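Figure 6 in text form: structure in, sequence out.
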């Protein structure tokens, strides 16, 4: 019997974006739906003393090149298109991640996730600028003003904090992180193992 996998994501991670693009085909092959869990990557980094790959790869001979090779393999294996580098990286994702929780409560979560990832990594914008983010999400057919207003509510802020804290307690140190039951997988390359596990192979 397969277990529903969880995908812990933050829009600021290009590898989370690539995972998001690969997931629909995995869902189709396995008949299993992924549960998307919004977390705050900055909060996870702070709690675990971690840094982004952009920082950890800096100045390390051959490591960045290997990561690029790994990404090429991933794109071929899962048949997804590469992301467009966001020139405003790193983007503070606090408001758009709170917006994701608000979108869950407002019943427009899937549409919001697709739009936010699109405006981060397909047509990249400065998504930590409230006006830019609101305009971008509105152009994708969302009521951005309503969602960002809802995002300021205490229950929304608390939910994102709880998701993030829980992720760290379960062993997460970055995004994308996947859980199948109590089994944790980190990084987009682990999606193949996630698929194997939910397929019962």
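Output sequence:
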């Amino acid at each position: 019997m397969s277990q529903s996998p969880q995908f812990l994501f933050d829009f600021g991670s290009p590898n989370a974006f690539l995972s998001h693009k690969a997931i629909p085909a995995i869902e189709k092959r396995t008949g299993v739906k992924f549960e998307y869990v919004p977390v705050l990557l900055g909060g996870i980094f702070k709690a675990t003393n971690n840094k982004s790959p952009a920082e950890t790869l800096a100045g390390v001979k051959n490591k960045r090149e290997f990561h690029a090779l790994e990404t090429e393999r991933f794109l071929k294996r899962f048949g997804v298109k590469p992301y467009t580098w966001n020139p405003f990286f790193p983007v503070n994702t606090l408001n758009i991640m709170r917006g994701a929780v608000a979108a869950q409560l407002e019943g427009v979560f899937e549409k919001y996730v697709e739009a936010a990832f699109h405006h981060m990594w397909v047509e990249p914008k400065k998504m930590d600028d409230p006006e830019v983010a609101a305009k971008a999400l509105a152009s994708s057919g969302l009521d951005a003003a309503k969602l960002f207003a809802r995002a300021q509510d205490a229950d929304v802020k608390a939910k994102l904090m709880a998701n993030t804290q829980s992720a760290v307690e379960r062993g997460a140190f970055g995004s994308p992180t996947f859980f199948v039951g109590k089994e944790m997988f980190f990084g987009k390359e682990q999606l193949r193992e996630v698929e194997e596990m939910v397929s019962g192979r």
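Caption detail: The longest helix spans residues 14-30.
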